[in-house]
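Holo model, iron/sulfur cluster. Inputs:
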Amino acid sequence: MPRRIARAADAPETLLDLTPSQARRRLAEWVSDRGLPRYRVDQLIARLWQRPVGSWTEATELPKGLRATLNAAVPLPRLNAEVVQTSSDGTRKYLWRLADGETIESVLIPAGKRRTLCVSSQAGCALGCVFCATGQMGFRRHLSPFEIVGQLREIVLARESDKPTNVVFMGMGEPFLNWPAVDRALTILNHAEGIGIGARH
Ligand code: SF4
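Output:
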C-alpha cells in the first residue's frame, strides 16, 4: 500500500503556528477566561519567539502551577535535531525529525557578523529538478509555519549566540507552492514580537 502523505493541516494549530498578533489575541482570551492578570499576556508572548523556551516549565518567571497548566493546554512544539554536522568553515547542517517522522534540512552559514540560515519550506519537493536530491525524493508534505520558523527557534534554544541574522528559503521545497504557511512564517520572522529580522528586497 502506498504510504499516506501526512499534511501539516492534519496537525492541530499551535501558538507557534500563529502570527504574533494572532498569538497575542489567542493568549489574551486564554488569560482573560482564567481570570489571570493582563500582564501575563506580555510574559507569555515573549516566550514564544523573543526569549524562547523549550517548554513552559523553563519560563521560571511564571508561577509553577501556571506553567503546568500551559504545558497541558497550549504545549510548545519542538523539532528534533537528529543530525548536526559542522564543516571546517563553520557551516552547520541540520537534519530535523518532524512529529510525524518526516525529515527536513537547514543550513546555518556564518560569515563575519552575519549568520544566514537556509530553511526548508516543504518536506520533499514536487518540482523534481534533475540536479537536486530533494527533487528526487518527490513531494512529501507542506510544512506548517512553526515547522519553518521552528528551524531557527531550535538553533536559538540550543545556543542564543547562534541566532541567525538572515533567513533564506533555499532548503527543501519550493516556498511559493506552500505560500499560506510561508507567508505566515515571514510575518513571524519579521514581526517585532516574533524574530524581528527586517525584510530585504
Ligand atoms: S528543492 Fe528546489 S532545486 Fe530541489 S527540486 Fe525543489 S525547486 Fe528544484
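Residues 1-6 have pLDDT under 50 and may be disordered. The first strand starts at residue 80 and ends at 86.
Archived with the compound record.
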